[in-house]
Design a protein that fits this description.
Length: 229
């Protein structure tokens, strides 16, 4: 009888302890090692890569001067870009040149206009230099220097870190932008001065009047001759 009583007590104690132990284990797991949500896609240490999507450059001839217009847009949602200074790098025929564009503003954007490499203007903003041309002894001559290669096939890259390759070419050749010799059309040739104040216009009018009168006289004579006959 005593043995049955002891066994019953042990079983009752076990039943009481098991739920308590399970609850403690569950609480311990929740506190020390929270389970991530099964729908979470977050990966520690990963960020969206910055890009220059939406950036562009173009060329234009303004007042005889070739220019490059640029618009730089840095997309950096996680603020991980390592640079905020924009540069335009042009390459072609084994040559390379870098054109500083400036520092992006607080919204990570930058736009403006720069001279085409080899082009120049005077203090009044008038063109006085073109790529591939040089002024020698007062005469403009074509040369392979002064960034002449930029007038051919080139590759252009906007670099901020990241970087972006963009299409760019020298503006279409016009009389104004092609070269110094074609920057202005020649004036129409003026009539040579005779050295006198003689004006031939009255004589021209008088001559015309005589021709008209002569024609009228011929008609009248013809009619009279016809009546007599």
């Amino acid at each position: 009888m005593l043995g049955k009583t002891v066994a019953a007590v042990v079983v009752a104690a076990f039943i009481a302890v098991v739920p308590t132990t399970a609850a403690i284990a569950a609480n311990s797991h929740t506190a020390d090692e929270p389970s991530p949500s099964p729908t979470s896609t977050y990966v520690p240490g990963q960020h969206s890569a910055p890009s220059l999507d939406g950036s562009a450059v173009s060329s234009a001839c303004i007042g005889d001067v070739p220019y490059i217009d640029y618009s730089v847009v840095l997309n950096d949602p996680d603020n991980v870009a390592t640079g905020h200074t924009a540069t335009l790098i042009m390459s072609g025929g084994g040559n390379t040149t870098s054109i500083p564009l400036g520092t992006l503003d607080s919204s990570n954007q930058l736009s403006g206009t720069v001279l085409w490499p080899g082009a120049s203007v005077d203090s009044q903003g008038n063109a006085d230099g073109w790529p591939g041309w040089a002024l020698v002894d007062g005469v403009w001559v074509e040369t392979t220097g002064n960034f002449a290669w930029t007038r051919g096939p080139i590759t252009a890259v906007i670099q901020v870190n990241p970087e972006l390759t963009v299409p760019l070419s020298y503006p279409p050749s016009t009389a104004a932008c092609a070269s110094p010799s074609g920057s202005h059309d020649p004036e129409p040739a003026a009539l040579a001065a005779t050295g006198s104040d003689f004006n031939p216009t009255p004589l021209l009018f008088a001559g015309g009047a005589l021709v008209v009168l002569g024609g009228v006289a011929v008609v009248l004579v013809s009619r009279r001759a016809a009546r007599r006959n």
